Amino acid sequence: MRTPSYMFWILFGAGIYSVYLGISGKLGYRRLTYIFPMYYSGGINYASIPMGIMAIIWAFAFGLIVTDEVGLVLTYFSLAFGFLGMVFNFIQPKFLTPQWYRWLKENHGDIMPWLRQDVESMGYSEWKKRTQTVAELEDWAIDVRKRYRWEIEAVKKHGGFPQ
Question: What region does 28 belong to: left with phi over 0, alpha with psi -120 to 50, or beta?
Answer without folding.
Answer: left
